[in-house]
Amino acid sequence: MVSAALCAVLAVLVPEPAFVRAAPFDSGAFWETRYKGGGNSGAGSYGDLARYKAAFLNLFVSAHNVKTVIEFGCGDGANLQLYKIPSYTGFDVSKTILARTAAKNSPDVAAGTKTFLHISEYDTNPTKYRAAVSISFDVLYHLIEDTVFDSYMRRLFGSAKFFVMIYSSDHDYRQADHVRHRKFTSWVKENAPEFEPYAFRSHNPSKCSDIKTGLLVNGDGTALTKAQCKNSRSIAEFHVFLRTAERPE
To answer: In whole angstroms, what is the distance from residue 88 CA to residue 171 CA?
Structure first.
């Protein structure tokens, strides 16, 4: 039997293992590391999901005679190849992917119809970067930190002259280390009262019966079929907001 005196000696000689606190998640670092390792922007940027989102955006751009679009979280630009936009500015947190995406779109960059910038450029002079429509596709649920999410939303709505278009889930749920769903419409109501929901043939990919053949068009001009829609089902859907007044002070 171990004596009390021996226990006291052992407690001094053999300290308890130190508690190591996990480092807080860093959204920007996560994506920079992913892109440096050769990763892409994810499944939502390819295949029928990408075609679905591009079709919706292209229809909106055509219907509203949109000339300028800003995207926050442009990533690898795979979706961009399907967009039909006269003037496009893409921001991202990853310098690695910005260089890669700019190189892939070098003819348009040289022509001045596409621009790719680090988010710090926007923060330096936010009034310089405004567009008819600001878009966010599959980004919100990758913004884990509250402060990062809030800053992102303020950029998104602050840069929009007329419309904000978001493709995302809209409920609170932590799915993974790098996936946190948010009830973002609550943020809009509280922090961007100058914007109101705007109804524009809002087709949720999970409701393919709503799709009318020929209504949505792919980037190559062909009609988006119901079969493609079924392959595009996701937890996200489109939300469009219209600026009805200037931001109140």
So the answer is: 30
